[in-house]
Design brief:
243 residues; alpha/beta; Nitrilase/N-carbamoyl-D-aminoacid amidohydrolase; 6-stranded mixed sheet; 6 helices; 12 strands
Length: 243
C-alpha cells in the first residue's frame, strides 16, 4: 500500500449542462486538459446529459461512449462524475471514478429523489454498497446529491478522508446544501468536495470544505480550486477524538 500524500490539489466543477451532450463532454475534456496539475477533479451529477428522461436510452448510450473517451484522457488524475447508464434492462445513475485510464470504482445512486421523478425512470442501487474505498493510501467515499440528507449513510462512510458529493441540487434548497455539506465535513473530520450544477434552477454552491469547516466557494465561477491537506485531517482527529 502506498503512503498517504501530504496534500492533494483539487477542483470541483460548477457547470451548466447544455442540451447537446457532446458540448458537455467537450467542456469536461477541456477542463481535464487545462488542469493536468490537479490531482482530483469532480464534475456535477449527470453533467453530460442531465436528467433527460425523454431520451434516456440515448443518454445512456452516449454516456457509455463518453466513458471510453474519458478513460483515454485520464491518467494520473482522479476524475469523479456520475452517468446515466444501462444496467441490464434498467437505467441507473452511476458514480464512476477514473484513474490511470481505468474505472477504479463504481457506485449506483441508492437514494432517488422522488420530487424529481428519479424513482420513476431509474433503478436504485443498494444502500450497503455506499462505503469508503481506497486509492493510493487515501480513503474516499461518495454520496450522490440527495444521499447527503441521510444520516445512516453518514455512518456508513465514517473514516473517509475525502467525501465526494456530485450533485444536481435545486436552487430552492440551496441553504440545505450548504449546511449539510459543511456539517458532514465537521462531523466526519474530513474534506468534502461538492460539485453542483449551475443551471438556472440549480443551487450552484460548489465548494471544498475542510474538516475544520472552512469553505472555499464562489457561485460566480466554473471552477473551485483548493488543496486537500491530509495533515489537517490528522491534526483535527487527534485534537478532537470521536471514539
Amino acid at each position: 500500500m502506498l503512503g498517504k500524500p501530504k496534500e492533494m490539489k483539487a477542483i470541483v466543477l460548477q457547470l451548466k449542462s447544455k442540451k447537446r451532450y457532446q458540448e458537455n463532454l467537450d467542456k469536461l475534456v477541456e477542463q481535464l486538459r487545462t488542469h493536468l496539475e490537479k490531482e482530483i477533479i469532480v464534475a456535477p451529477e449527470v453533467f453530460l446529459t442531465a436528467y433527460d428522461y425523454e431520451h434516456l436510452a440515448t443518454a445512456a448510450k452516449f454516456s457509455a461512449k463518453a466513458l471510453k473517451i474519458l478513460k483515454q484522457e485520464v491518467n494520473e488524475q482522479i476524475l469523479v462524475l456520475t452517468l446515466i447508464l444501462k444496467d441490464g434492462e434498467d437505467f441507473v445513475n452511476q458514480a464512476v471514478v477514473i484513474h490511470k485510464h481505468k474505472v477504479v470504482y463504481r457506485q449506483n445512486k441508492a437514494k432517488l429523489f422522488k420530487l424529481g421523478d428519479e424513482d420513476i425512470y431509474l433503478t436504485a442501487g443498494k444502500k450497503k454498497r455506499i462505503k469508503p474505498f481506497e486509492i493510493e493510501g487515501v480513503k474516499y467515499a461518495i454520496l450522490i446529491c440527495f444521499e447527503l440528507r441521510f444520516k445512516e449513510l453518514w455512518k456508513q462512510i465514517e473514516g473517509a478522508d475525502v467525501v465526494i458529493v456530485p450533485a444536481r441540487w435545486g436552487l430552492a434548497r440551496k441553504v440545505h446544501l450548504r449546511i449539510l455539506s459543511a456539517a458532514l465535513a465537521v462531523m466526519n473530520q474530513s474534506y468534502v468536495l461538492l460539485s453542483n450544477s449551475s443551471d438556472s434552477d440549480m443551487a450552484s454552491e460548489s465548494s471544498i470544505i475542510s474538516p475544520n469547516g472552512d469553505i472555499v466557494s464562489d457561485d460566480s465561477k466554473e471552477i473551485i480550486a483548493s488543496v486537500v491537506d491530509f495533515r489537517e485531517i490528522k491534526k483535527i482527529r487527534r485534537y478532537i477524538v470521536m471514539d
